[in-house]
């Protein structure tokens, strides 16, 4: 795979603004995709927040392979991060973010109050890659639509202060990637789940990676969804032909319509039709 570069100009501006505002924050919320706990972790953001209390929010837990997710949660907790598994879409565990934050900042709040500084408002910044669910999470937190939501990356373009409750303010930030994905697995994982735009990488390459990954880690899902008995023994094109036949993605002449098969495959992955999946297993092996 060619080295992926997808870093629009507004992302340079966003990174600069994050660096400027981070000093105002009591806590940082780093939202990552529970299916991609490694690939959705921006290393540039990690450098910026390393000296701030950081709560890792594993979002979209309903879409993630639970066993793989638990391994990643343990991995990050061993590195000193606080963690919480959430679903910004249906609100699962979102109501725990405030109380968890108070626990994390307990000593800071007590020190401030002991000095007579009267710690009143907790300020946090929410960070993450595009399309990870930041705006949906904010709308859940305040129980109304205050942030624009979209199902494609790059919807939020500027920072926005949100008052969650009288003593909790949150700074929403645009999704930020990093200039280059050195690990090709990261680029493919982000493309498969829709974190980067679908035209960033050739769709046939993305689907080839997805099929190879599913053959290695989830062959049973291919069998259940597409009636493929022994996926590991089949070539990529053979699997596409089989999906095309089972799902009716054929041309008038009876040939496989590969563009339709690519769309079917990615839609099934992103909508949980293939079950709960995780795409960062190779980084833990």
UniProtKB/TrEMBL annotation:
Binding annotation for GTP: 59-62, 87-88, 131-136, 175
CP-type G domain sequence ranges: 12-179
Highest taxon above the source species: Bacteria
Any one Gene Ontology cellular component term annotated for this protein: cytoplasm
InterPro entries the UniProt entry points to: G_CP_dom (IPR030378), GTP-bd (IPR006073), GTP-bd_ortho_bundle_sf (IPR023179), GTP-bd_ribosome_bgen (IPR019991), GTPase_MTG1 (IPR016478), P-loop_NTPase (IPR027417)
Keyword Hydrolase: yes
Keywords: Cytoplasm, GTP-binding, Hydrolase, Nucleotide-binding, RNA-binding
Pfam family, one: MMR_HSR1
Localisation per UniProt entry: Cytoplasm
GO biological process: one example: translation
UniProt-recorded Gene Ontology molecular function terms: GTP binding; GTPase activity; RNA binding
Functional description taken from the UniProt entry: Required for a late step of 50S ribosomal subunit assembly. Has GTPase activity.
Family under the similarity heading: Belongs to the TRAFAC class YlqF/YawG GTPase family. MTG1 subfamily.
Entry protein name: Ribosome biogenesis GTPase A
Lineage: Bacteria, Bacillati, Mycoplasmatota, Mollicutes, Acholeplasmatales
């Amino acid at each position: 795979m060619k080295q992926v570069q997808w870093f629009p100009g507004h992302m340079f501006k966003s990174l600069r603004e994050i660096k400027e505002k981070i000093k105002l924050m009591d806590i940082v919320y780093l939202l990552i995709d529970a299916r991609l706990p490694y690939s959705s972790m921006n290393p540039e953001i990690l450098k910026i927040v390393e000296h701030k209390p950081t709560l890792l929010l594993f979002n979209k837990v309903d879409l993630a392979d639970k066993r793989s997710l638990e391994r990643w949660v343990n991995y990050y907790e061993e590195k000193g991060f606080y963690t919480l598994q959430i679903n910004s879409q249906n609100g699962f565990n979102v109501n725990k973010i405030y109380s968890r934050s108070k626990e994390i900042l307990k000593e800071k709040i007590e020190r401030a109050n002991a000095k007579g500084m009267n710690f009143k408002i907790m300020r946090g910044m929410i960070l993450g890659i595009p399309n990870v669910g930041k705006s949906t999470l904010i709308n859940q937190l305040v129980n109304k639509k205050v942030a624009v939501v979209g199902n494609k990356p790059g919807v939020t373009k500027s920072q926005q202060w949100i008052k969650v409750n009288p003593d909790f303010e949150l700074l929403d930030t645009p999704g930020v990637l990093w200039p280059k994905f050195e690990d090709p697995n990261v680029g493919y994982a982000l493309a498969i789940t829709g974190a980067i735009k679908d035209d960033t990488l050739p769709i046939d390459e993305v689907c080839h990676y997805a099929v190879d990954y599913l053959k290695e880690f989830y062959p049973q899902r291919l069998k259940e969804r597409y009636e493929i008995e022994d996926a590991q023994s089949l070539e990529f094109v053979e699997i596409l032909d089989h999906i095309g036949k089972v799902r009716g993605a054929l041309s008038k002449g009876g040939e496989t319509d590969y563009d339709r098969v690519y769309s079917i495959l990615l839609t099934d992955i992103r909508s949980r039709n293939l079950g709960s999946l995780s795409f960062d297993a190779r980084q833990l092996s």
